[in-house]
Amino acid sequence: DAGSERAATPVELADMVALFRQCMQAGAFGLGSSTFENHNGWNGIPVPSRLATPEEFRAFAGVIADFGHGSMMATCGNATSIAFLEELAEISGRPVIYAPLLHYSNQPRRAFDIVAQCAAARQRGNPVYAQGSCQPLSMDFTLTAAYPMLTIEGWPKSQDKPAVAAVLADPGFRRGVREDLKSPKGTRIFNGHWERVEVTTSARADLQGRSIAAIAAGDGKDPVDTFLDLGLAEDLETVFTAKLLNVEEDAVAELLRDEGVLVSLSDAGAHHTFFCDAGFGMHFLGHWVRERGLFTLPQAIRKLSSDLADIYGIPDRGRLVEGAFADMILFDPASIAIGPTERIADLPADSSRLIRRAPGLHGTWVNGVRVFDGTGYVKTTPPGQVLTRFTGGAPSVGMPAAAH
């Protein structure tokens, strides 16, 4: 519990480093972490990694250096600079990945500055890359778990309904929200674009699919009041969907073209009740190749496969060549896409999660065995293998010739 209250002591850090070394000896790939201010546990308690000191990260980078393979990545908050990630890359000799690279409407140069700093680090021989999303970041939420709003000054982090309701009804709180949204602030993911917040599920069918901005204009009300009044009237059960970041497509296109930007960022189910970006590859092939023509099909496939395998140092993956693992998908370039989010309740205690389907995807093979037939999973002996073998040395993607 103390991990969410303070940094590690020298003795605790030594114990963690020893445990990490055991993990690497057992076949672990590296270290993933978070310093992002919005990453909290129940009732707003910070995840422990947010309190980690730079010395802690340097110590873990030193372990990776001893093994000569693997990587470090972090979901980075305001205090984590590209210069610090470059220092970790220099210590470890291995790639360090910044995440998430997203275009902020209120800070239009932010993502481009990050990309430029990563490129400069690579030119100095230090492999620093950025994980970028190829689709808008959308999120479903209710007012008892309003993740997009948590970086607004004074927003309640409690998930106790009566406590949250009391705060949301307070006129002083509402004035504070309106004031805070007037100016850009750090990595805040919601910046007052009420036209991008829609009512998804409501007791009022006439509101579903409409934006808060449109509802507020129709009622002659302030959008903050419209948003909060609707949630309070429905016992905080109203489901909203917000398009938060990566909405300006011309800017996103420019970011995706950079060879140091890894097309990825699915969150791997970490926020399964809020959003599902697991189909980013299908969206990349459908939208950015077929619809926008930003990449040729071979360029896109390379960016989704061999570039990633080469950067992370995963051998015999990412290419269809003799001797490599036969990991493949079969898709129709004319129809491949990503469907809308769907909510299904198949988790323990009747909990729900979001999924997305992929029209145009006709099959998936893992190690030469078909596991998906375009409609559902195929019953078969699981063909996956644990990755325990990695390559070392500097990756070639985006690095100067002298470094590889």
Provide the helix percentage: 25-40%
Number of strands: 13
Count of helical regions? 12
User: Rg to the nearest angstrom?
Assistant: 22 Å
Low-confidence stretches: none
Coarse structural class:
alpha/beta
What best-fitting shape do the alpha-carbon axes yield?
globular
In whole angstroms, how far apart are the ends? 44 Å
Sheet with most strands: strand arrangement = 1-2-3-4-8
Order of helices and strands: HEHEHEHEEHHEHHEHEHHHEEEEE
Give the overall average pLDDT. Answer: 92
Percentage of residues in DSSP E strands: 15-25%
Summarize the biggest pleated sheet: 5 strands, parallel
Write a brief caption for the model:
This protein is 32% helix and 16% strand.
Q: Would you write up a description of this structure?
A:
This protein is an alpha/beta fold and 404 residues long. The chain is 32% helix and 16% strand. The strands form four sheets. The chain has a five-stranded parallel β-sheet with strand order 1-2-3-4-8, sandwiched between helices. A hairpin with an 8-residue loop joins strand 10 (341-344) and strand 11. It starts with 9 loop residues before the first helix and ends in a 32-residue tail after the last strand. The mean pLDDT is 92.
